[in-house]
Amino acid sequence: MSHHPQEPARYALHPQLAADTHPLASLELCDLRLMDDANYPWLVLVPRIAEARELLDLDAAQRHRLTDEIDLAARVLTGVFRPFKLNVAALGNLVPQLHVHVIARFEDDPAWPAPVWGRVAARPYSPEALVGRIRLLDAALRA
């Protein structure tokens, strides 16, 4: 019986996150993605760390970097949309891969004041709206 050294795990985006989000930017630590739900301006940060499930799977430098990138996402959403409130959450019950939601909330949004999960059906962007939203966010990221 021959023993092969185990190949190190490689980062790969969880298929559910790939299906539910659109790529926006590649930050130092995270892939920044747009949730395909036009009900809310909703960004998702996914650290490119193989097999990370929890914040505690990141080392101190990675945790600090993630905090900075959450701050960037929050500032972009605030600058572009002027939300009443930001929701920031890492749940990962259905998708175990570590990812952080940053969601701009408004008092007249479809789920207000409840959390967005399971309240109303996601409303996928039309192709034109998606292009416009990504352009807007991309410009804010570069500013």
Automatic annotation (TrEMBL):
Annotated protein name in UniProt: HIT domain-containing protein
Organism encoding this protein: Luteimonas viscosa
GO MF entry, a single one: catalytic activity
SUPFAM superfamilies: HIT-like
Lineage: superkingdom: Bacteria
Taxon lineage: Bacteria, Pseudomonadati, Pseudomonadota, Gammaproteobacteria, Lysobacterales
HIT domain mapped to chain residues: 43-112
